[in-house]
Amino acid sequence: MGAHIIRRDEALRRGAADSQLQRLCHKGSWYRLRPGVYTPREQFAALDARERHIILATAALHASSPDAVLSHQSAAALHGLDLWNTPMKAVHLTRNRRSGGRRTGHRHVHSAALDSDEVTTIDGLRVTTVARTVVDLARSLPFEQAVVAGDHALHTKRCTFRDLEASRPQSARRKVARVSSQLDGRSESVGESRSRVLMIREQLPIPDCQANLYAPDGVHLGRVDFLFEEFGVVGEFDGRIKYGRLVPDGQVPADVLWAEKTREDAIRAAGWQVVRWGWNELSTPHVVVQRIRDAFERARLSPPPRGRVEHTPQP
To answer: Where does the AbiEi antitoxin N-terminal domain lie (predicted)?
Structure first.
């Protein structure tokens, strides 16, 4: 992270005076994380949103009760889970008690039953485990945001469906069950998770994820993001990341674009209808829905795909 946390009591022990600390904050050299806790403003400004939240969470946890644990999106940030459109202004903590939760603009303390095996440590900070974090997010976030985090936890094998089942809370069980039932660890990106949520909401058939397609002669045509096998349609989310910083060594973006075109041409030649969409279209669901339904219709009027499908199991 790179931002150093400075505590008032430590600074005073080293010979500083309160007036000096106040002057450093007033001049803008230090950023006040919370009363008596500071960090160099230049270092703090260089951090991304997740790193800033972790610094704030670290300061908040050290100033909290000894039984407090970082949870919800604060724990997700420390675990490195993907988060999309998730509020990060407030630090979330959980205390293992029935009541006494409270909320301010910058801190949200939850009161909830918390078993010892639902707590772990990251860089010396007590946080909820990945499974418990996903369950807490399922309780507290909108469906789409919760699915994004849960998919990533399963895809990166930070937890399993069995772990999620074991961490079911006493409250909001139906909401958690709904999220858990729609998670898919084969989802490889935020965009793919959001695409699947779009299909769920728009009452489209739920596709298979990351299936491998083969030509009649056994040649591997490629692995596809979404497969509507019974309809003869392939769906691809184009996040464009593969055309940028993840271009393989020794290649340029044009090489990746050409390889993608060749792959898609081969899939089409085997009889599959291919539909693509990107980030912009996710904000206009009707556009994606119409493209997919148009492809269903084209496939209905065309010969069925040739070759075979190899399904990828859930991790």
So the answer is: 5-39
